[in-house]
Request: fold
Amino acid sequence: MGKPNDLVQGTLDLLILKTLTLEAMHGWAIGKRIQQVSNEVLQVQQGSLYPALHRLEQQGWIKAKWAESETGRQAKFYSLTAAGRKQLEAETASWNRLSAAIDLIVTEA
Amino acid sequence: MRWLAQLRMRIEMLFTRGNAAKSLDAELRDHLERQIAENVAAGMSAEEARYAALQAFGNPALVRDQARATWNWNWLELMARDVRYGVRTLMRTPGFSLIAIVVMALCIGATTSMFTIVRSVLLRPLPFRDPDRLVMIYEHFRDGRSNQEGFNYNPVAPGDFYDWRAQTHGFEDMAATRYSQFNLTGERGELPELVRARGGSWNLFPLLGVQAAIGRTFAESEDRPDGTVVMLSWNLFERRFAGDPSIVGKQIHLDGKPYTVVGVLPKGFIYPDAKVQLWVTFASGLPPDLLQHHDYHWARVVARLRPGVSLASALGQVGAVQYRLHMDNLHAPVAEDVATRTMNEDLSWSVKKPLLILLCAVGCMLLIGCLNVANLLVARGGARQREIAIRGALGARRSTLIRAQMTESLLICVAGGVGGMLLSLAATKWIGSAWKNLPSAAGIHVDAVVLGFASVVVILAALLAGLLPAISSTGKAAFAALQASSRTTSGSLSRAMLRKTLLTVEIAVTVVLLVGAGLLLRSFERLSTTDVGCVTDNVLTLDLSLPEQKYGTPEKANAFYESILERLRGLPGVRGVALGTTLPGEGNGGDDSFTIKEHPALKPGDVMPDALTRWADPGYFNALQIPLLKGRFFTKDDRVDRSRKVIVSSQLARQYFPGEDPIGQSIHVTAYNNSDYEIVGVVGDTLWRVGQPVLPAMYFPILDGGIHNGQALAIHTVSDPLAVSVQVQKQIASLDPELPVSNVQTMQQAIGDSLGNARFSATLVLGFAVLSLVLASVGLYGVLSYLMTQRTTELGVRMALGAQRDQVLRLMLLDGLRPAIFGLALGSATSAGVTQLIQSMLYNTKPLDLAVYVAVTLTLLVVATLACMIPAWRASRLDPMQALRME
Reply:
């Protein structure tokens, strides 16, 4: 595993929202999923994950519920709200715009 | 809906924060355990798995705090925590906290009291409709005397007022008021009472926007010389008529004449002051031709601005009319100009300056209090250096540390503020009752604005007292305290410097206050020891008012005068009795202009001679020990038809008969029967009011049989004058049981009342100054003790190297006195400038009075030396071995 890249706060929000589109997950699972799907490139530090989750919850993009997990213990599951879905679309769009712009500059031969 | 979810989150976070905290803990614990489980599944042992998981996790406390930092209401939580810590820290050093709180309570209390009073007297709007569109109009003479304070707003002559009202259109309306007083006799045998009253034009109350609470206000037809209607004040209505509304329409007897009550004024209506109990119409009871005069000035005119017309243009119209009147009456004392001022200023001009001075003085005291608390906080910062350094090392930002310290200072100020508010409630009541000359439209009381002001003061004080120490104790140098060997840290040196600077400023401000207080006291002392010109010890004075009904003829009046004089002179313990109108030291009492028969006629544009008018009985001057300089006193024969004689004062003789003998010449007074009065004597001057320059006076014989708007008796006794007051009143009652007397007091008391302003200002400022001196000396003591502790090692070394104890004493003493001396110099220089501002309040005292400065310097040096002596002496008693061993 390479040195984990620093993730900007905004992009972490985007990743979390995307990860939650399919199903509700708890914090540990979200971190693991991001790591998996990015082929181990992105490793989320707990110090940024939980503040991000709580912030997203305060803002109403995701909502939380304590439920029984696969291990039998209680865990806090986060799921996307309707407003969160809209926010995801908006953030995806702006990310695409941003990365396309950077792409243009960087690949200028 | 997102906003609904957000709202729900906010409410949850506010009220169920504890649950959220537990939930977060559980969440993080759960995460950790999953990581451990994963590690174990990957093949590590239980202990390794745990170790690796924790490493990956990071500091759990930090993660938790970071997560919590994103919660709503985080600022509230931080503030609550700061307050909790602050309270705990303050409770740990109760002595320090108590001193600081007491200091702040005193200062904030004093400031709030002064603000309450200033607001009630100077800033509260009057209870009229649109009070800022109301102005008072006065007349203004162009001669030199009129530019002195107290003379440049001259009352208006009624003839002038009627002409203004008829001939100008700039103001929406104008009304006039005048002084009056009546004997109110009881309907059912109650005691008769002398009540102060005012006469007002029929349109006065509509102009002011005041409605009658019961009944109605005056009608135009009632404003005539034979009008006999009256309106009661609410106070009189409740006090004397038991609040019974049926009094409206009934008759009451004023000066023996029946007057019909047409209405009662509302409760809050107090104008011009609380002593006025009745209102009659302006013209009522006056001789009809008196209302046409342009040369007797006794009315006060209030006018309402017309919307759309500026004050300048409306006043210009009135001024033009007045000037024309002046040109038409060149030999009469008719003013050339008009002058105006707002109603607020009209009521408060005499106390405005003293109040503002007091406000500044109390502001200085607040500043000193804050500096003192700041000094204390800096000292305490030194003791907590380690604690702050450790906090900083653990990750606290500088702003967090500063915020924590500011919270402590805010807590001190809030506690002080609460104590101060309670103090100020009591103090305001006391000041309001003790300062008798305070005018106030609606009474002085504490309300929301005052509370708001107190809060602002608390916050400002907290900032002032706390910011500097907080910043200085969290600077980079502070963290040097964590070093193992911190014998001498540069941080402590700068702290000592800071404390000394604060102390210098504190002492400078104290010096300014002391000098101000000294000057005011000296001025007051000069005022109260001024020679009035007559005897003032052991003199009983009282006022009478013979009603015209009973004493309308000269025979009846003279009969009363002579009887009462004879009876009172026969009482045991009485050395002399004087019967007159206004007594010396009790005010203007009225003045009139005159011409001198033997002198050439006045040229147009010349100012007519003017003098205070008094009446006196034949034994008046002897009884009051006013010396006869030339000629003779009045005799019993100068009465009724043969009373065209006058005695003039020495000032009158000097001013209007320079270099010649006035005896035998005559003066002609238009006011009194248009006759000539022969000058038969010249007497010594008396002051009409202590603190004001002497004015010429002329005395007429009271045995001319007139009743002249009220009389006054002065009884010179062998010993305590109040002891005979009962006897005197009995004698008066035996002559006329329906005649009330008023203002029974000694002459010293009467004069003392007129000095009320001066005495009060001086006392209050002195009180502030003494308090500040105490604070400053406590601060000085504290600083020097602190310095001594800091320099213990150094002193030990000095003594070990051979310094004698008295050398050490001198060293420490000088070290402490240096800021005191700097402060003294700075303060003296500042007060030399600042005291120019109070020059107008000083009587016969220059702002640079040497004696005051010397006294202040000596006082401060003595107090400072005493304060420094104790720590210095303790320093000299140090055991060098112990001092060297101290860390």
About this structure: The mean pLDDT of chain A is 85. The CA atoms of residues 99 and 105 of chain A lie 10 Å apart. The helical segments of chain A are 9-19, 27-37, 46-59, 82-106.
